[in-house]
Automatic annotation (TrEMBL):
The lineage of its organism: Eukaryota, Metazoa, Spiralia, Lophotrochozoa, Mollusca. GO terms for cellular component: membrane. This is Major facilitator superfamily (MFS) profile domain-containing protein. It comes from the Eukaryota. The gene is 106059509. It is found in: Membrane. PROSITE patterns: MFS, SUGAR_TRANSPORT_1.
């Protein structure tokens, strides 16, 4: 092998042009390469998890207007007196579903007689907690006139994905793949963990935007490093397997979300393991 390497080094075209040949001589996919590649694939799982976690964090949650002045109002009817208050306060919306339901956006005004009342917009809402205990929607009341904010939040995160895809390759070419990888790990960890503590919608959207950048940046760095790590004969397999780990992360997220129905806790559980990737330094 040493003789072959010497021949390659003496060739005027050696260097970058002979990189593939050198990798083949060292081994296309040896034990060291497999170990490093596996660690990269674990980080790929986190990318899949973080891009799909919003499916649960912003999952549909049924709701209706809260009864004005009743602080302990709940979506589930507690007793006959509670049902009477709901009927007197919340108008029936026949357009909701197949059988109709209580209005999600309007209540009867407190002024006027029973036969002479007007509709006013809700100021508070109560949410059905049978499927999700809490979501971003219930925390920030992204319903009725604020419903459009849901699409905006998702769209802005996709903007982060686009920016990360465009900019990461340029940055990696300047500072190197590993440094770019660790920088994206830092951004990925900070933004993903920070989302769980977002106390306003603006902060939540900003952090999801940064998470989007980190997802694209981290995955691109992982993919390129994986390709550069192995020989030409293994690159197709390597390119496929890293995607399998991405999909596995999405499947694992589904299992975790089945047991954890509070969005903040779910976000923390799937985000804190990202800190382990700092050991790659």
């Amino acid at each position: 092998m040493s003789t072959e390497l010497e021949e390659l080094s003496s060739d005027e075209d050696s260097g970058r042009m002979k990189f593939d040949e050198i990798v083949q001589l060292l081994g296309d996919f040896g034990t060291y390469q497999k170990r490093v590649y596996f660690l990269l694939c674990l980080a790929s799982m986190s990318c899949g998890i973080q891009i799909m976690v919003s499916v649960f964090n912003m999952g549909h949650i049924d709701h209706r207007c809260a009864i004005p002045g009743l602080e302990n109002d709940s979506y589930i009817v507690a007793n006959e007196e509670h049902a009477k208050l709901i009927n007197e306060t919340i108008p029936w919306d026949s357009n909701r579903g197949d059988n109709g339901g209580y209005s999600q956006c309007y209540v009867w005004s407190a002024n006027g007689t029973l036969g002479d009342r007007s509709l006013t917009r809700c100021q508070r809402w109560v949410y059905d907690e049978s499927q999700f205990r809490t979501t971003v929607i219930s925390k920030f009341d992204l319903v009725c006139e604020n419903e459009m904010a849901r699409s905006h939040a998702r769209m802005i995160m996709m903007g982060g994905l686009l920016l990360g895809a465009i900019g990461t390759g340029v940055v990696a070419d300047i500072v190197g793949r590993k440094l770019a990888l660790m920088g994206m790990v830092a951004l990925h960890a900070a933004s993903s963990i920070g989302v769980a503590w977002a106390d306003t919608l603006v902060i939540y959207v900003i952090l999801r935007f940064l998470t989007g950048i980190s997802i694209s940046g981290l995955f691109l760095a992982i993919f390129v490093l994986g390709m550069e790590l192995v020989g030409p004969s293994k690159r197709m397999v390597v390119g496929i397997v890293v995607e399998v780990f991405w999909a596995a992360g999405v499947l694992i997220l589904g299992v975790i979300a089945y047991f954890i129905r509070e969005w903040e806790i779910l976000q923390m559980v799937v985000s804190f393991p990202i800190l382990l990737f700092f050991t790659y330094c």
